[in-house]
Amino acid sequence: MEKGRVTIPSESNFLAETKRLMALWGADAIRDSDGTKLDEELKQIGAKIYTTYFVARGHNDFAQKHLEEVQQAFLLSERVCATEDEPKIWFMKGYLEEQLQPNYREDPKELWEVYDRTTGEKLANEDWEVDQKQNVVSLKKWQPYHEYTVSFLASMIWDPTQMYNHITNDWGDKPHEIPFDIRQPESKAFVRNFLTNWLADNPDTDVVRFTTFFYHFTLFFNDQKKEKFVDWFGYGSTVSVRALKEFEQAYGYKLHAEDFVDEGYYNSPFRVPSQAFLDYIDFIQRFVANEAKKLVEIVHDAKREAMMFLGDNWIGTEPYGPYFKEIGLDAVVGSVGNGTTLRMISEIPHVKYTEGRFLPYFFPDVFYEGNDPTIEAKENWLTARRAILRKPVDRIGYGGYLSLANKFPEFVDYVSSVTAEFRDLYERIADVKPYVGIKVGILNSWGKLRSWQTHMVAHALWYQQIYSYLGVLESLSGQKIAVEFLNFADIKAGVPGDIDVLINVGDAGTAFSGGKNWQDTQLIATLTKWVANGGGLIGIGEPTAHLANGRFFQLAHILGVDKELGFSLSTDKYFKDEVSAHFITDKATQVEFGEMQKNIYALSEETQILRYLDGSVQLATHDFSKGRGVYFSGMPYSPENAQIFLRAIYYAAHKEEELNIWYAENPDVEVHAYPEKRQYAVVNNTDEKQVSKIYTDKKNYVITLAPGAIEWRNYDE
């Protein structure tokens, strides 16, 4: 194919240049972006037209008439340490009043909560008062030198994404878009009627790109217009009095402000979720699916396609959740930051096609004089391509201002090569299952609901505390491994029969390591039996961690290591010697452990220590009856780490002899085989020339690959 499967942005008064870039990139669709519009000439050039559609923002004429229906959230004030003087809590301190305002339409005494954070106790309503003119709570009864907070209901009067784009692009006096809540009666009627009329007024639109539906992920800004709190999975902006009442009717109990502010953590995905929060997620998902379905039906009745952007107002859609299928969407498009996010999009079920929006976004923070956006584009493509070769999205595209990209000829040429290569890959492998050697299960508190979404804070952005764990999924995203995401309830009665290796990753106490789930003795016994009968367990960071019964790692007896917390310093730790050679680290020049863990020690001489650094075990293996345990202190992504991790998976599964089937010795090179087509691809994942020994299912040979090259071969060559 020389054309197709590519969507590019455009803008007004950019017709000739759009035509040129469409031809160069082989694009068959054009789209607008936040801040751009397509003029009539652009809509008539024969391309499929995507139009960005905002359901619950971008309609200020309506929103300003119904400010009682704006979206809301529970917020937590800063902590104030009480002295002998009457304490006052200026609860809006640190928040941006352009975005958030206290909601005094509802009685604060009915919804707000004041907590003694030193004791964890809620104050009685008569023990505090609100000054609505000054936004301050005065305490009438308090304990000196205890800390206090106010949990208050706030109205959201500026959409967070539009605010971000507003600041980034310096939109000046452009109106602040007010988000409104479609759970409210006027808003619910408005969105349906407006969409019906909008479709009639936009006959040239082929694809309605919902961006997204109703509720934005939790994103609050501080008084300096910087991000204060961002959780790409956050349900904080879905709150209303109506929602709270309907929840109580459906579930039989009442939610409170503390259920949302969660001591200031706002139920981040790193928190082991409470049952109340899980119930609330389910409640919102059912509502969103039901209402989104009605809008999609309106689109379909107008003979258009309905596409959802996996971002912005995506909360409640949960593509891997139980209600997503009911929405009836034609497509999902999402931003591709790496291989993990590519798989997050490409694996989404119940849609006709998926689309990845590649980076960089055509915004002035990247496309400015003196910068080379091609560097980011190459890294983005080569990183995501590994995942595409396992499970491709159906389309790719870009967003932003096409006029900015047009000023960088080298970037324009590189995108041309990317789009051509993508079409070639898709034509070869779109409906073909790649070779898989082993199946692993990722075990955490979220399971299937958050498939390919673990250890994210703001959708693939780098954080010091998580890169050592996110590397697990990044490695797996482009490897010959089948991946299933499991929660603790999924395995309590037994590990699924097709799982070869279970992987538990994360810091102690987090949802990803498991926290209080490891109090369950039945769970421990079930997994112990499974490994004893031949299963493999890989733990990374502080796996199975919960201090109880003389152990911190509750499956230390399988992993062969535990963590010293200071309680057993009087017990000598003699086992520190590394083994001279091991299958996992064979030919490895360097293993990166990221932030590493300290004070990890081997339990006995039966533990094989592969790396011992700074007085702590960083990599070890341990045989347990017929099964095996493997421990890593961290697993940031790098090509060499990915290869070591792959070897660890095969070792844990007792399948070492099968590793050299569709395998490359050079970690910068990978092999992807497609048995149905009797073809395989040898891929250089770097921008430099690479040489590697290659193993097929029958033979081995040495190959030299140009920078970024893919060489396709038949099985029988």
Automatic annotation (TrEMBL):
Domain of life: Bacteria
Keyword set, alphabetical order: Glycosyltransferase, Transferase
InterPro entries: Class_I_gatase-like (IPR029062), Glyco_hydro_b (IPR013780), Ig-like_fold (IPR013783), Lact_bio_phlase-like_N (IPR035080), Lacto-N-biose_phosphorylase (IPR012711), LBP_C (IPR035356), LBP_M (IPR035363)
The protein's Enzyme Commission number: 2.4.1.211
Lacto-N-biose phosphorylase central domain ranges (all copies): 439-657
Lacto-N-biose phosphorylase C-terminal domain: residues covered: 662-712
Root EC class: transferase
Signal peptide: none
Every Lacto-N-biose phosphorylase-like N-terminal TIM barrel domain range: 4-435
UniProt name for this protein: 1,3-beta-galactosyl-N-acetylhexosamine phosphorylase
Gene name for this UniProt entry: gnpA
